[in-house]
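[09:14] KT: can someone run the structure on this one? pasting the chain below
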Amino acid sequence: MKRLVGLIDKDKVYFGGRYDLEGRHIEPSLLTGISFDDAIMKDEIFGPILPVIEYDDLEEVLPKVKSLPDPLACYVYTQNKSIKNRILREVSFGGGAVNDSVMHFINSNLPFGGIGSSGIGSYHGKYGFENFTHYKSILERPSWFETNIKYHPHTNAKLKIIKRILE
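[09:31] RB: done, structure tokens below
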């Protein structure tokens, strides 16, 4: 709670920004006038604070985004198909959405998770089950029978038998 409150720069609050430490409540907050050097851009937030970095030229901002650690998610808001495709193709991130944010996170049919320093694996629905379940493979061979087919010397006759078994 204190970490999140410390990320809210009161001079950059566009909407929200109020909080109650004792009640452990932070109002959803939108911050503008943000740069990559602001504290809120140094770590994943995991709270109801959205920093917005405005830019005029994708050529200026894209190299900076790509130079940073891979984010958990990327949400692109644009009507321009070439800009959308370029960002989705060039920026590495765990998951994302175009022209929406919440539906990506709450949809249990979509895997959600990070990559790199933002985490590994995915969760939500079957993806979470598969990610947090360890499939242990076991091969059991009866002890009463052992063929020499897999041992040296390897011959063409043994190879033919193996191929027939595997077909």
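[09:33] KT: thanks! The chain has a mean pLDDT of 85.
[09:34] RB: yep, looked fine to me
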